[in-house]
Amino acid sequence: MTKNSMISSTSSLLETKNSMASKVKNRPVIGGIQHKECTKCYEVKPLGDFFNCKKSLFGKTSKCKSCIKGLSEPKRDQKRDYDRQRRLENQDAIRRYDRYRYRRDKEKRTALAKRWARKNPEKRRAICRKYEHKNKGKYVFYSRSKQMRRCQATPKWLTPEQLDQIEMLYILADSFTRITGIKHHVDHIHPIKGNGVRGLHVPWNLQILSQSENCSKSNKFDGTFENLTWRQEL
Ligand SMILES: [Zn+2]
Question: What is the CA(162)–ligand 1 centre distance, in A?
Answer without folding.
Answer: 56
